[in-house]
Specification:
Layout: E1 23-25, E2 35-37, E3 48-52, E4 59-63, E5 67-71, E6 74-77, H1 80-88, H2 92-105, H3 107-130, H4 132-161, H5 167-170, H6 172-192
Parallel strand pairs: 1-6
Antiparallel strand pairs: 1-2, 3-4, 5-6
């Protein structure tokens, strides 16, 4: 919770483009989009920040406002109510920007993820031509194992994340839906066996 991630999905102070900027700053205090900065802005003369904050995600320039490093690695407004709102607010738009930013940063990983199923499916198609029964059984068994692994990972995640402070408040839907998805994965895995 104390390490900020900017709206492009980069970890402030860690990822190469923002390695020298360790703090997270909210150019719009009514939105949870973050930019990485090297120091907290003290006045409106400390710069302008451009981010996709306008209608339809268009770039919008916002002037700085007075902040201080109050909470972890975040520069929060000196107005206590605004600071509380920033800590408590999470928007779908920001999460989408962070996810897309992570995808575009890790292009090689995405390429491997897309190529592996193509190669595997070609191998299975060739195998189905020569040994259809064996490869059909292998396909069903592989699907069952993958579904069981998904259920196991979800179970382990649920155990770990339920102990994280504020996780219940920030992800209530995830906690409600996760057991159903886990159980459906186990049930579908059982059917494929």
């Amino acid at each position: 919770l104390s390490e900020p991630i900017d709206f492009r999905g980069r970890l402030c102070g860690y990822d190469a483009p923002v390695r020298d900027r360790k703090l997270g700053y909210h150019p719009n205090p009514y939105n949870d989009m973050v930019v990485c900065v090297d120091s907290c802005p003290k006045t409106s003369g400390d710069g302008n920040f451009t981010l996709p904050d306008g209608p339809m995600g268009k770039d919008y320039m916002r002037p700085a406002y007075p902040t201080a490093k109050i909470y972890g690695q975040y520069c929060l407004p000196l107005d206590l109510q605004l600071a509380k709102n920033i800590i408590a607010t999470k928007s779908v738009q920001t999460e989408i920007y962070k996810a897309l930013g992570s995808v575009f940063i890790a292009r090689e990983v995405i390429l491997v993820i897309l190529i592996m199923p193509l190669i595997t499916s070609c191998i299975f198609l060739v195998g189905m031509l020569f040994m259809p029964t064996a490869f059909a059984a292998l396909a069903f068994a592989t699907t069952a194992v993958v579904l069981a692994l998904i259920a196991l990972i979800m179970h382990l995640d649920e155990d770990v994340l339920s102990g994280v402070p504020l996780y219940h408040e920030t992800h209530p839907l995830m906690l409600e839906v996760q057991p159903y998805i886990r159980n459906m994965s186990l049930f579908a895995g059982g059917i494929f066996l």
